[in-house]
Write a structure and sequence with these properties.
- Keywords: ATP-binding, Nucleotide-binding, Phosphate transport, Transport.
- This protein is of the alpha/beta class.
- The protein folds into 2 domains: 179 residues, Rossmann fold, CATH 3.40.50.300; 72 residues, no CATH class.
- Helices cover 31% and strands 24% of the residues.
- The protein is built from 10 helices and 12 strands.
- The radius of gyration is 19 Å and the shape is globular.
- The chain starts with 21 loop residues before the first strand and ends in a 5-residue tail after the last helix.
- The relative contact order is 0.18.
- The structure holds adenosine-5'-triphosphate.
- The site of adenosine-5'-triphosphate (ATP) has 13 residues, from β4 and α1.
């Protein structure tokens, strides 16, 4: 209990007002330190457990956490602590993993995304995902953008599609670099350009939330800087949840940071608080480089 200190909201939390400072897990044996709950969350994760190998292995333990509107939430922690597992729960990517089971509840704008009525295709259009390695379709730059909107029946007329291509690529900071080669293969772009194309492809279907799993880990420092600036711009419109191994990156781009350890959410708070005034010994050890 001595490790549990009430967290003060910081100025960076202006948009997301804290509702509580210490959350008691259902088993009451462990506590998350900080501010897991906020006013008017976009997504609400409640008491989520994730099991692999038909229940043999538990990767996430009783995690509860809110994701706010127009914020960047960074998920950090040592390798294997469950960051990607939890991220994949947010758009049900784990459904495709044999022997994986998720309990608890996750809502998007109050609607249970694990309910029987939830259509997966609709969910994936509301909660988009950008992966570690840029993975454009083996199609033209234009087709990469138009594929999703056509699939979801969002846009059909050629002029509307052209406008969407321009808007999505502009938002992703790629338009000027590719406007004269829209019909060339996307695989001809550099790694950083391909990642921005994947972000443009995600934006094109107007998601509410964008999940990013180490989006810069395959990129050089210059391409990383471009993506980080882009993330900063995108949060004016979207909620972004980003897994990162780079603490510097979390500090540069995120509003709040969640620190995980062995499947437990140890601490969540404004990024400034987590890095400059961590409340839990495990967080302190991690950010000071003593662990991981
Ligand atoms: N498909 C799977 N089947 C079985 N166990 C898995 C599977 N995917 C992940 N795990 C296990 O779940 C735990 C959490 O893994 P996860 O990939 O979510 O961690 P992480 O924090 O994202 O790690 P990293 O930073 O190394 O990517 C680990 O023990 C991992 O071995």
């Amino acid at each position: 209990m001595s490790e549990i200190i009430r967290a003060m909201p910081s100025p960076i939390m202006a948009k997301v007002k804290p509702k509580s400072s210490v959350h008691h897990r259902t088993d009451e044996s462990r506590l998350t330190v900080g501010v897991p709950f906020i006013e008017n969350p976009r997504m609400a994760v409640r008491d989520v457990n994730v099991f692999y190998d038909n229940g043999v292995k538990q990767a996430i333990n009783h995690v509860s956490l809110d994701i706010g509107e127009r914020e960047v939430l960074a998920m950090i922690g040592p390798s294997g602590c469950g960051k990607s597992t939890l991220l994949r729960c947010l758009n049900r990517m784990n459904d495709t993993v044999d022997g994986c089971r998720v309990t608890g509840s996750i809502t998007l704008d109050g609607k249970d995304i694990y309910s029987k009525e939830q259509e997966i295709v609709e969910l994936r259009s509301q909660v988009g995902m950008v992966f570690q390695r840029p993975n454009p379709f083996p199609k033209s730059i234009r087709d990469n953008i138009t594929y999703g909107p056509k699939l979801h029946g969002l846009v059909e007329a050629r002029a509307d599609l052209d406008l969407l291509v321009e808007q999505s690529l502009t938002k992703a900071g790629l338009w000027n670099e590719v406007k004269d080669r829209l019909d060339t293969p996307a695989t001809g772009l550099s790694g950083g350009q391909q990642q921005r194309l994947c972000i443009a492809r995600t934006i094109a279907i107007s998601p509410e939330v964008i999940l990013m799993d180490e989006p810069c880990s395959a990129l050089d420092p210059i391409a990383t800087e471009v993506i980080e600036e882009l993330i900063y711009d995108l949060k004016q419109q979207f909620s972004i949840v980003m897994v990162t191994h780079s603490m510097q990156q979390a500090l540069r781009v995120s509003d709040r940071t969640a620190y995980f350890h062995l499947g437990d959410l140890i601490e969540v708070n404004s990024t400034q608080e987590v890095f400059h005034n961590p409340k839990h010994r495990l967080t302190t050890d991690y950010i000071s480089g003593r662990f991981g």
